[in-house]
Amino acid sequence: MKLPTENARNFALQMRQSLMGSQAQRARDSQNWDALFYSGATMDKDEAAIVNIVSSRIKTQAGNLFSPDHLTFRLEYGVNTPEPVLLKAQTAGSEISRELREADADLEFSDCVELALRHGCSFGQLQWESTDGGKTGSFACDAIQQSSVGVLNERAKSLHDQPAVMVSYSIPAEEFKTAVLKFRGTTDVASAFDNRDGSAATQMNDATRVVLGLNQPISSASTSQAGFVNILPRPPFIPSANSRGRQVAIDAIWFHEDDGTWATVYVVEGNETIGTDRWRNFLALDPTGDENKILAKRIPYFYVCPVPVKGSFFGRSMIADFAEAQDYLRRHTNGLDNILSRREDPSYVGFGAIQPAEIYRQQLRNPGGFVTETGPNAKVQEFAPQMPPEIFEALGVVAEFASDAANAPPIVQGRGEKGVRAGAHAETLMLAASSRERRPALRTVRQCGDMGDLALDIWRVKDASILSSKGGDFTAESLPNGFHVYCNGFTASPMFAAEYLNKISELVRVGAIGPEQVLDLINIEGYDLLRNALEKREAAQAKFLQEHPEVVTKMASHRR
Fold first, then answer.
1. Which of 105, 285, 378, 393 is the most buried (most CB within 10 A)?
2. d(Cα 75, Cα 54) in Å, to the nearest integer?
3. Under 8 Å CB-to-CB from 488, ≥6 apart: which residues?
4. Distance CA 308, CA 311 (A)
5. Is 534 exposed, middle or buried (0-12, 13-18, 19+ CB in 10 A)?
């Protein structure tokens, strides 16, 4: 796809309409899923449910699929890769793991997983915030729900397969000014903000000056200003000292061009465009302001969908599996509460009574109260609905249906199971019950690896720090291509943690791996300190054996 040179504005606005085709319905669906998640009732119901099974089941399943615990990423090369390269790759993997942990990217990815279970899929945004003149910086990660994203091909399997993607958000006006100057990369645009006639603009703060600058059409005397039109027709808003100013609604449209790179067009306030000539991919800007060819083929978003649906890019919400059960529980538990309240303080009906029924009610409500009636046929009767005898059994059956739909039988919830008599039996049942979640968990771990792959590509271009390894000093940019980043998520997902550790124990028992490999395979706090201490102990042992050869001889004789 390519942005046309003529009528680019109309093309961008029409593309926005196409990308928003199903966005409105997804937004409503997301509101319904969130209402069920938080209150146990859809948004068209007035009251929250007494029993909410949705929230606990979604949170439990999200934790089973992905529970970050000192998450690490590894760089994997092909066979016959030189050892110095592998040593550098190990150092780079540790460094990128530390960078993402400091940015809480693993926790944000957990939020993406929960959002994906609730809405069908979600997206993560990985950004680089530059410091020190653009040579170094740090990561920032956010979770984006699918109702904020529009795509052209709803049958595509990945973001990279999309011809165009749109992400809707809002930013303060003063940040919008900085973004325009940076991503357009021209000084002509700066004059649109700063060279205003009169003293009114100079009396305003930066946010208002931006609005005033954008409120005037810009001539097309320079090609760098092509497509820069009157994008904020509303009157300028003067923010108070305690606010960040006006929020500007922006739809960022990313076009996948024919050469594999991505370009952007921004639609502001829903009806005007800015920069309908080609914008640079801001993700791909290196510290010198040039566009990096590798990052120009990436976008700052990664796709998270634990349970995809064939032919549907946005997947299916897991809440849909037990929404009907939740609605059944909401209706009948609310009705049960109504019956109990009416039975707790019932009304009374008097038959053949001389006095008003309210008098009998007041007297009978008091402890030890009684009624005296002279009428021979007088009768006072409690008027309260009867409790349906099958209601509790029906609620229990529906709760079991919901647990089965969420793959949460009692054995998975830690409540035991009928007929279980031994721990080994319980462990076997646990593994059998978790089999339905193993594929979603694997898929989630691989998608987390995609985040690490994007992070490393960004890091190689944006960070010029020098790293040290046994293979020598190097920068991340100097690493050879051909690597794949994967997430060591077997310890991050409870589905695989116990099985994975058992395999490591077996490898140690048969002597296939040593202490160093064990530290590399598990996620543990203080990895660097433990690795350094292990190397010092091994060096001390080697020196001792070299100085005392008789010990080596004695050890060899014991082996025989």
1. 105
2. 38
3. 71, 72, 73, 74, 521, 523
4. 9
5. middle
Contact 406, 64 (CB under 8 A): no
d(CA 430, CA 425): 9
What percentage of the chain's residues is helix, strand, coil (to nearest 5)?
Answer: 50, 15, 35
User: Given the structure tokens 């940076």, which residue do they identify?
Assistant: 182
CA 159 to CA 17: how far, in whole Å? 19
**Rg of the chain taking only CA atoms, in angstroms:** 33
Eight-class DSSP state of 355: S
The length of the chain is 560
Single-letter code of the amino acid located at 65: L
Rounded-to-integer distance, Cα 267 and Cα 273, Å: 4
Return the domain boundaries, the chain: 8-46+99-319, 321-435, 526-560
> Are the CB atoms for 163 and 256 separated by under 8 Å?
yes
CB 135 within 8 A of CB 112: no
H helices within 408-434, ranges in order?
423-433
Element (H, E) at 455: helix 435-462
Q: How many CA atoms lie within 13 A of 445 on its CB side?
A: 26
The encoded tokens of residue 486 equal 């994967």
Owner of token pair 């994906």: 116
Q: Which two tokens stand for residue 325?
A: 């059960």
**Spatial separation of the C-alpha atoms in residues 322 and 313, rounded to whole Å:** 22
- The Cα–Cα gap between 275 and 227 comes to 5
